[in-house]
Predict the structure of succinate dehydrogenase.
Amino acid sequence: MSENKTVRLIITRQDRPDSAPYEEEFVIPYRPNMNVISALMEIRRNPVNAKGEKTTPVAWEMNCLEEVCGACSMVINGKPRQACAALIDKLEQPIRLEPMRTFPVIRDLVIDRSRMFDALKRVKAWIPIDGTYDLGPGPRMPERKRQWAYELSKCMTCGVCLEACPNVNSKSNFIGPAPLSQVRLFNAHPTGAMHKAERLRAIMGDGGLANCGNSQNCVQSCPKGIPLTTSIAALNRETTIQMFRDFFGSDEV
């Protein structure tokens, strides 16, 4: 039965970063259990559009194929999500694929996520250590704190929350929900807490917490269900406390 079925895709393409986008339609044979990635791989195998014209293979990114790496983020039928987790049988046709426009487009569905990675550098989203030698076991976290910190650690820097956020755009330098949540994660770590004040100061200025419009789009779109708005609310309280500490010259964390 599936031999006669087809899948229609309308893909927004762009040949170069400075060229105009255009749409190209493809019709491919249907197979059971297909996802968007397997549909794109079929187009790559035989790059012929719906008009029967030979064309260039569609460019996109992928890696893990199990919703862990975040590389295959794109807008599917108007919603930013992972292509590997988007099953053809659950999508309305024609399936429309577009790049996430929050980020500059390099080619077709490939985007430049530098904006997000620069924001992670700004908030020092890592645990600094002194040297590469063995420091021994680190301090233990209370189980209750470890549980919610683990939920924040699920972030795969896919960029979906930034795409869904109306405050992250070309006219704003808002760093977005994902980097903000990482501030809370690394400040909760016993070793990372040494740089807590530095991270909080990084989000107190322009492009930080004040630019959040509380639209709630981020938490609804996150493929990992990370409580992003809960983190933002907690950071609002922590930055207020840090502001008073800075004002009165206190160095306490």
